[in-house]
Amino acid sequence: MFDRNILKELQLWLEKPDRKPLVLRGARQVGKTTVVRELGKQCKQFIYLNLELEEDRKPFEQFTNVPILLQTVFLLKNKLLSEKENTLLFIDEIQEHPPALNILRYLYEQEPALPVIAAGSTLETAFDKNIHFPVGRVEYKILRPASFLEFLGANGEMVALEKLQEIPLPDYAQDTLQRLFHTYALTGGMPEVVSHYAHNKDLTALVSIYDSLLTSYADDVEKYANTSQQVQLIRHAIRSVFGEAGKRITFEGFGHSSYRSRDVKEALIMLEKTFLIQLIYPQTNATLPLMPDQKKKPRLQALDTGLLNYMAGIQTDIIQSEDLNSVYNGTMIEHLVGQEILAHQYLSLSSLYFWVREKSTSNAEVDYLYPYEGKLIPIEVKSGATGKLKSLHIFMDMVPHNMAIRFYAGNIHISQLVTPSGKTYYLLNLPYFLATQLEAYMNWFQKQIHIAN
């Protein structure tokens, strides 16, 4: 187990006086069980229940009375009921017994001092079965693949980790962090992959892990498909999403298939509920509120860039490249920057956003939008001269602020640019590996502009 940033979030939850039961969400094998076990070490007692196991599921099948249920569980696991306030109760694979979701409500109402975490790989599909979900009685956190920051920690690169969090980054740390990020871009952030590489430093050995992960997702299909035809469709979708990740997609014929638009959309929405993918619809306005246009083609964000690299067959290209923007027409690094922006966002509604203007005369697109202090900050992911940022200029002419971000293969610096229509704005240029530190750099960027003016 390597240190995950979400542990800090879980510790804050554990210390809250008005704590509710926590539902930890995320795709299979992103490390939910491992991270909760790590949190459990901070408590006097830790109870782990896996509802895939008949022995652990049986108390929930037999009892709905909370006091009796807890007595049974504590007896089953040989724990002291008198220490329940110092006990972390973890109910894993809770979707295997949907009525257990309702028990969370009564645990909150009758035993508010008992810390309870629930998790499940296909939890969202359980919500679709007309279950009385305890609205307002639970809170949520989402666990995603490991970030570059966590990758450094797992690999024992503690000095590099310290410098990554220093704002602004010292110039002398640039080359080292760029080299390490190159490796992270290749491996991705799936915990098993990161841990294996940290211990063995063998990139070739990771192939079997990627294959195993993708096979396990495909094998999960039967758990959330209703018919054999749907099984085949979802299996096709799983195989295709990692090859199409980072691109705007059409549902009709997705993945070079003959499947209809409606069927593909339903399958992808189902995968979205299991956190394997995210369908990102474009924003057409340049100001808040965020109102993505679901009539336009979405961009497909997959769970992990390492899996994208494996399925797209671009791992050798990454190893040989000087600038990650040259790989896969820039799609891989753009996808990874999005993954990094999301990495430390743990709320259920956390999402990525991008902007388009589609006209018959000309189109424009900005890679990402980042809400910051009431403003939508545009983010471009590309190398090259700043004079080629045509879409960014169009966007900046539409907004009331003067701040923009570019991630590229270069050093930190602030450019002062002028749009063709005459508006002056500031562009913060950041190396790709600082995407996970975006919020901190936004604060620093704003201060620099204030000093300059």
From TrEMBL:
Highest taxon listed in the record's lineage: Bacteria
AAA+ ATPase domain sequence ranges: 18-137
InterPro entries: AAA+_ATPase, AAA_14, DUF4143, P-loop_NTPase
Protein source organism: Hydrobacter penzbergensis
Name of protein: AAA+ ATPase domain-containing protein
Gene3D superfamilies: P-loop containing nucleotide triphosphate hydrolases (3.40.50.300)
Pfam families: AAA_14, DUF4143
Lineage of producing organism: Bacteria, Pseudomonadati, Bacteroidota, Chitinophagia, Chitinophagales
